[in-house]
Structure formats: structure tokens, C-alpha cells
From TrEMBL:
The keyword Transmembrane helix applies. PROSITE patterns: MSCL. PANTHER family: LARGE-CONDUCTANCE MECHANOSENSITIVE CHANNEL, MECHANOSENSITIVE CHANNEL MSCL. The keyword Phosphoprotein does not apply. Channel that opens in response to stretch forces in the membrane lipid bilayer. May participate in the regulation of osmotic pressure changes within the cell. This is Large-conductance mechanosensitive channel. It comes from uncultured Rubellimicrobium sp. SUPFAM superfamilies: Gated mechanosensitive channel. GO terms for molecular function: mechanosensitive monoatomic ion channel activity. It comes from the Bacteria. It is found in: Cell inner membrane; Cell membrane. GO terms for cellular component: plasma membrane. Homopentamer.
Length: 151
């Protein structure tokens, strides 16, 4: 059983998955920093200096005036944190864009790896229409049918 487990772990797919998860976690930290430290302040600047990540609406409860999102949440009020949601959407779009670019780059590398000038194997060609008709004629003639060869 231990040998089977070792063989399972040593397979390339499991190791590739582990590396992907580790790189994904590190990449998430980079994207969070990009959105929180660069993009949100720029958007906040465009919409009048508002802290984009702290945009919320109090649905019920008491929140001190000009309190940040975390303070509003800590006060026990029910808040609709649309700024946090918009931040998550921006993070998703950035990750999706980067993954798209990575897949595009990998596909380009794969396509360029195919040697130029190497003939691409084509599908085997089937019989022509005339050859098929001759085969049908020969089959009918072989069964004693009334088919006569047309020359």
C-alpha cells in the first residue's frame, strides 16, 4: 500500500497539480496586491478620491459616520459591501486575462515547435467515384446479375 501511494505521488500529474496550486497561491497574492494597491486607488482617484474597497451600504444597524468597511462589520451591522464585490470582480478579470495570455503563449510555442516544411500527414485518400462504380459493377456481375460492362 505504501508503494502504491509512493507511485501515485510520483506520477507527473500529481506533481504538476501540486506545483500549479503553489504557483496559483503565490499568483493570488500578486493579483490581490495589484488590485488593492494599484487599481483600486486609481479607480478611487477617477471617482473622486473615494476608497473603492470600503464602499458599502448599511442595510440595518448602527455604524459610526465615515467608518470603514471593517469597522462597520465589527459593529454588527448588516452591510452590503459592494466595493468588496467589485474588487473581487476586478481580481477575477485580471486572473482570467493573465490565464488567457498564458494559454495563448503556450499555444503559440506549441505551434512554432512544429517544424516548418515538414509535410503534414494527410488522411488516406479513398477510391474515386469511377473506381467505386467499377467495383459495384464487378460485384453485380459476379453475382450473376444482368449488369454488362460499359466501356
Amino acid at each position: 500500500m505504501i508503494r502504491e501511494f509512493r507511485d501515485f505521488i510520483a506520477k507527473g500529474n500529481v506533481m504538476d497539480l501540486a506545483v500549479g496550486i503553489i504557483i496559483g497561491a503565490a499568483f493570488t497574492a500578486i493579483v490581490n496586491s495589484l488590485v488593492g494597491d494599484i487599481i483600486n486607488p486609481l479607480i478611487g482617484l477617477l471617482i473622486g478620491g473615494v476608497d473603492f474597497s470600503n464602499l458599502y451600504w448599511v442595510m440595518s444597524g448602527e455604524v459610526p459616520a465615515n467608518a470603514g468597511l471593517q469597522t462597520a462589520r465589527d459593529s454588527g451591522a448588516a452591510v452590503f459591501a459592494y466595493g468588496a464585490f467589485i474588487t473581487a470582480v476586478i481580481e477575477f478579470l485580471i486572473v482570467a486575462w493573465v490565464v488567457f495570455l498564458l494559454v495563448k503563449a503556450v499555444n503559440r510555442i506549441k505551434n512554432s515547435a512544429v517544424r516548418k516544411g515538414e509535410p503534414v500527414p494527410s488522411a488516406p485518400k479513398g477510391p474515386t467515384q469511377e473506381e467505386l462504380l467499377q467495383q459495384i459493377r464487378d460485384l453485380l456481375a459476379g453475382r450473376g446479375g444482368n449488369a454488362s460492362p460499359a466501356e
